[in-house]
Amino acid sequence: MNITHAKRYFRNVAMKGMRNTPKANRHSVLAFVNGSHHCDINILYPMVLRIMKRLFSSVFALSAVVAPVFLFAGNASAQTINPKPTGTNAAYLGAGISAGVTNGGSLNYNDDAQFGGNVQGRYAIPRTPISARGALLFGGDTVSVIPSLSYDIPVSNNTNLYLGAGYSFVGKEGKSTPLGNKDAVVLSTGVESQVTNRVVLYGDVKVGLDAYKDSSAAASSIQAGAAYRFN
Asked: Which CATH architecture has domain 92-229?
């Protein structure tokens, strides 16, 4: 832009800011823009303030439009930085305690709550939220073997909540275990967390439906343990 074009541009800006200005005052401002020294500063100063006020109003309006765009971009960036939790796909085998918390109330069979131990394992089926699990509960008079499938829900990085269903096979029906004394459908809910590259901590609650001889009561047990990750 050369000097002539610059003068023409500022003359147009000045005229837009002086639409409601007396004609005599307009001549003074235009004389200043054209480089003349014969202009009244008392007239010029208010005109400059008015023009600057219009410019600031335009800048403010533009900011009101642009600011939300930057806020949206910032939120999108934050979502990229903080992705959804990944959970853990650890395949493991571990051991711990098992505590029965119910009894069947039978007079003919030993179905008191039992305290014992557990051996549990997990294999995460690739590219699915499903895991194959197995548990051995011991304590009391015999053992209970429980194969099951679970639906795994990542709740943070390296940690899953899971819901499972399976079946309990009691070593000898009528003999007590931490989860009743007969074969039964089992529902479970638990949590597992990988705390190091090779160590996983787990805990769950199992409920055996109609798991007592001579009783329709459900059996419940609580498990907790530590496991070795082998994948």
From this structure: Beta Barrel (2.40)
Model confidence pLDDT, tens digit, residues 108-150: 787 888 999 999 999 999 999 999 999 999 998 999 999 999 9
Q: DSSP readout, 34-97?
A: TT-S---HHHHHHHHHHHHHHHHHHHHHHHHHHHHHHHHHHHHHHHHHS----B----EEEEEE
pTM: 0.65
Residues 108 and 181: beta-carbon distance below 8 Å: no
Find, among 67, 188, 195, the residue nearest to 135 by Cα.
Answer: 188
> What is the token pair recorded at 84?
């959804």
Transcribe 139-202 into DSSP letters.
Answer: ETTEEEEEEEEEEEEEEEBTEEEEEEEEEEEESSTTS-BTTBSS-EEEEEEEEEEE-SSSEEEE
